[in-house]
Design a protein that fits this description.
The protein contains five helices and six strands; from the N terminus they run H-H-H-E-E-E-E-H-E-E-H. The protein starts with 9 loop residues before the first helix and ends with a helix.
Length: 134
């Protein structure tokens, strides 16, 4: 799965560190929102046959590890990895019948969020920083 990273401006990092000291719960809340957005996009991209796979996609807890927050999106359906990544088709006799392409619904959702996130977080952090300083 793709990691979400922001590189760049020292001011951004300083503002983040200041906000981290003053309002870690706000950052955790934002991380939870981001995790839920990735979950929702993943569900939206999930093929529906019975609906069980779509219902099995969940946003896990957000945890603070050092100065970072980590959230997870997962499926508790035992076949989810086969739909995500693709799989071989094999007969009952073990004959190889080919390959079924994956849908990569989680990977696509993470990539989409990676593109949007720097701009989204910079705007959010600027507003929060002003609010906390004001």
């Amino acid at each position: 799965m793709a990691d979400i990273r922001i590189e760049g401006l020292e001011e951004f990092q300083k503002a983040f560190n200041d906000v981290m000291k003053k309002a870690p719960e706000r950052i955790e809340k934002k991380a939870k929102e981001i995790t839920e957005e990735v979950r929702d996009d993943t569900k939206e991209n999930t093929p529906v046959r019975t609906g069980k796979l779509k219902k099995s996609i969940k946003a896990g807890k957000v945890e603070q590890i050092g100065k970072t927050f980590q959230g997870e999106v997962y499926s508790d359906a035992p076949h989810s990895h086969l739909i995500e990544e693709g799989h071989r088709l094999v007969s009952h006799k073990g004959e190889d019948w080919g390959w079924v392409d994956g849908f990569f619904m989680l990977e696509k959702a993470a990539q989409k969020k990676n593109k949007e996130l720097p701009r989204e977080l910079q705007s959010w952090l600027s507003e929060l920083y002003k609010e906390l300083e004001g």
